[in-house]
Amino acid sequence: MSAVASCILGLTIRPGVLKRAQAEIDAVVGLGRLPDFNDFDSLPYITAIAKETMRWRDVVPIGELNVH
Hints:
Blueprint: H1 2-13, H2 15-28, H3 44-56
Helix pairs in contact: 1-3
């Protein structure tokens, strides 16, 4: 859930990225269906957004582990 929240946050502060992502999806998939794994190679910008989301904000705590 934190990755989704980070992605939404990032897209709200960069609306141009959201517009470009929507344009890529519309060009590859169209309006009649949702993207699936067969579209993966045709959506490099969407893939980059997903990777940047994971890089931009930690999605799990990275503090100390208390192992006894």
